[in-house]
Design brief:
- By secondary structure, the protein is an all-alpha fold.
- It has one domain.
- About 70% of the residues lie in helices and about 0% in strands.
- The protein has nine helices and no strands.
- Helix 2 runs antiparallel to helix 5 and helix 7 packs antiparallel against helix 8.
- The longest helix has about 50 residues.
- The N and C termini lie far apart (about 65 Å).
């Protein structure tokens, strides 16, 4: 709006604006098409990125939940060892959350703590049940796949390039300027056309920018499953702690029976 009058004065400095609706229509047709196609590609890009991030995080957190459930069923483990495995899982989840939220806490960030589970599995006796062997094999498989979470940080925080935003904004400005040049002999109609054009451009920019930040804004990735897993880990850890304290008070060796 601020640039409209200077542009009119520059183009027609010694006369009033002529009727150029046909010329503006020839300009708006390709400009609007390029604008729509460009925003369509940008929307598809950010939406596909959010879908990929959602699927990847859901898969990773579901594997963490499986690790927790498999740990509960390892009867050959002592309670203290099982508690160490729960702590390793919790630290790995917190590390992922810190990467997601981009928290400035590099001192407390614990990378690769998921591998501590392998050290805990070394405490299992050599003679064990076949079911325990199968559970250990699955645990090691899930640990190996979860270790790649840190490598996916670049995908979690990928953004549309600033030059692409400049291109989209220039296209939007050109389309809006073209609408301003249209003369309808009706101020109300011209106002309505300007309002609809401005609203559509603003909503398009807002939706693309909102989806481009998958962990903030209105269209964000749901991380409720993380809270549920952390709550389950806390419950399992507390039960194992109660079991350990009960055995210590009784003067017995640490029980191998899971408390969960």
């Amino acid at each position: 709006m601020a640039a409209y009058q200077p542009i009119i004065d520059f183009l027609w400095s010694h006369r009033t604006q002529p009727a150029i609706n046909e010329a503006v229509a020839c300009f708006l047709a390709p400009a609007g098409m390029v604008f729509a196609v460009s925003f369509g590609f940008a929307f598809q890009q950010v939406l596909q990125k959010q879908i990929d991030i959602t699927a990847r995080l859901n898969n990773d957190f579901s594997e963490m939940e499986l690790l927790m459930n498999l740990t509960k069923k390892l009867y050959c483990l002592k309670s203290r060892t099982r508690m160490k495995m729960y702590i390793a899982l919790k630290d790995e989840i917190m590390a992922v959350i810190q990467y997601i939220t981009e928290m400035d806490c590099l001192q407390t960030r614990k990378e690769g703590t998921i591998w501590d589970i392998i050290d805990c599995l070394r405490e299992i006796p050599a003679q064990r049940h076949n079911v325990d062997r199968a559970l250990i094999h699955d645990i090691i498989k899930y640990v190996g796949s979860l270790n790649s979470i840190v490598d996916k940080v670049g995908t979690l925080h990928a953004r549309i390039h600033p030059l692409q935003w400049v291109f989209l904004e220039v296209l939007g400005f050109s389309s809006f300027l073209g609408i301003q040049l249209v003369k309808c002999e009706s101020p109300r109609l011209e106002l309505a056309m300007s309002f609809v054009t401005c609203l559509s451009i603003s909503l398009s920019c807002y939706i693309v920018a909102d989806i481009d930040t998958p962990f903030h804004g209105f269209f964000r990735v749901d991380l409720q499953s993380v809270s549920n897993i952390l709550a389950d880990l806390e419950n399992c850890y507390c039960r194992e702690d109660v079991q350990t304290n009960r055995c210590d008070r009784a003067g017995l060796s640490n029980s191998c029976t899971p408390a969960c």
